[in-house]
Amino acid sequence: MITNKKLFLLGAIFIPTLSMASTAPLNNSQPENTGTPEYLIDGDMVLDSVSEFHTFSANRAANTSGLDSAVGWPNGIVPFQLVGIASGSQNEKNILEAMEEIERASRVNFVHKTSSHSNYLTIYGHALDDEREKNKICSANIGYANGGRRQAWIPSYCSVGTAIHELLHILGYRHEHQRTDRDYHTRDGQRYSLTVNDRYVPCTLQSAFRTSSLISRSRPYDFQSIMHYSNSDRTGCTSGATGKAFSYQNLDTGAAINTLGNFRMSNGDLQSLRDGYGRNRSQTPVFLGSSHKDETSLRISVVWYQVHDYPDYFRVNETSEEFIDINRNGRLDVGTPMTYRISASNYWRDAFEIYFGDSLPEKKNGYRYRFTVEACWDGGACSSESAAQTISVLQRAREPEPYIEDNVSTDKEFYVRWNSQPQVQYFKAYRNGSYLGQITGNSLKQSLPSGTYKYEIQACNARGCSDKATLTHKHSVKIEGVPTSAPRIDDLIDSDWDNIAEFGFYKVARATEYRFRIAGQGLVYTGSIQTPYQDTDGGYKSIYRKAPDGRYQVSITACNINGCGPTATETVSVWSDF
């Protein structure tokens, strides 16, 4: 079964830009020469000198493979400092978020500049000059070059996507729309053409719409690249007319494509970034949270760092089976396999959620579910990188509700019963503090003499046991007649070093009370002791009294609520056992 599911994103790329609060503390703003460079080329790409303009690749380190005729940052490490940008401002947040997105997609690592860094990036919170401020243009140098100080100008009006664009310039990437093959190229077996409408190109961006031989990408032309200018309306430099500067067409179908550029890195951007800087972070999805769930309305969070390019959808395969016999049919049932298709059209960060309980059916209590997640594309291909997670759905056992069933109140037998719960695997029972064991049913049969009994019952499953439910039962057993036998008295009595003697005897049937008299050595003891009712003779009972060595006459009478039976009398000897 295939189920389409909307993607729940944990975050989004765009954060509204706010004016930098004048009262907020500023980031590092050490004095630097921030004068306008001699040349500004290609709209927002800035060169530092005339010589660099004419000898762009000469007299410096060798260009880095995978970059656009530029030198990459050694080991992908970019020390940076922010100048004129308020700490905690939206401007700072946008820049740091842009850095984070690039780091997640590659081995690039932006680190805060220290005094030990002589090669670093300075990002200013103002525009390059008044003209760029007026036209809200953000700017940056290209690549690492020969090191030293590299610069970017990212004011508060620059969005996260624009900040990514400028940082990719710093990393060595130029504009996609300035490729020499833009006028005619093929992609996915079809022919395309890009035409520039010069009458709508602004004065400050004239060179940015010309082709450049410095762009050295070997991958197919990517009109969805974040390094491709958008096709928004612009006002021409000489004409003063407003319109779209690009016309992009599929030559095979004649269809016009008006949406160009991007606010995020495209698949092609990711591939180009990884061509230049590699990709070595986790490629395996990670399931978050416990592998046991209380609720049947599951919410599964998945984090996939540096997912393989940008997928069109995530495919989640599900299998399930009972792990306790929740259906009480004597077997462990197997659930129906399911496949869920989760749209990734809005995928940007690294996490998404699958929620069962709204548009998707809830899971079954007592079942174990195994989910496998893959990244897939509409063409049918799925990544070889995937992960699986097994989640057991089992509600915690609730405290049971015990009650007594004693239909014949005068006999010995009665039942302790409690309510059933489908998620319970067994119960624990205690009587007067003593553990009676595990019980798989919902009742406990008892056969006991008269007395007061305190029961404690716990409901348990793989998640643990509930609190103890307590029940006290005062049990009365009807007694027929009086005892017919006399107790048998031990004739040899031991005493300890403190002359405490143990006068012992054997109990008889029907007796619940034994009345005694012990006399000798000038001492006389009388009294009674209570015992549980029993149907047969047997069992030993002791009476402890202080008694020096010598002979004593002991008389014991067995009694119950109906009266007393015969009396046993015996002369016994007490001697010290030490």
Structure commentary:
GO terms for molecular function: metalloendopeptidase activity; zinc ion binding. Pfam families: Astacin. One of its GO terms (biological process) is proteolysis. Zn(2+) binds at residues 165, 169, 175. Keywords: Hydrolase, Metal-binding, Metalloprotease, Protease, Zinc. The chain folds into 5 domains: 40-53 and 62-176, Collagenase (Catalytic Domain); 180-261, no CATH class; 286-393, Immunoglobulins (Immunoglobulin-like), CATH 2.60.40.10; 402-475, Sandwich (Immunoglobulin-like), CATH 2.60.40.10; 494-576, Immunoglobulins (Immunoglobulin-like). The chain has 578 residues and is mainly beta. The protein is built from 5 helices and 38 strands. Helix 2 (90-105) crosses helix 4. The longest helix has 16 residues, at 90-105. Residues 1-26, 28-39 and 50-61 have low confidence and may be disordered. Strand 37 (550-560) and strand 38 (563-576) form a beta hairpin. The strands form 10 sheets. Strands 1-19-18-21-22-16 form a 6-stranded mixed beta sheet, with no helix packed on it.
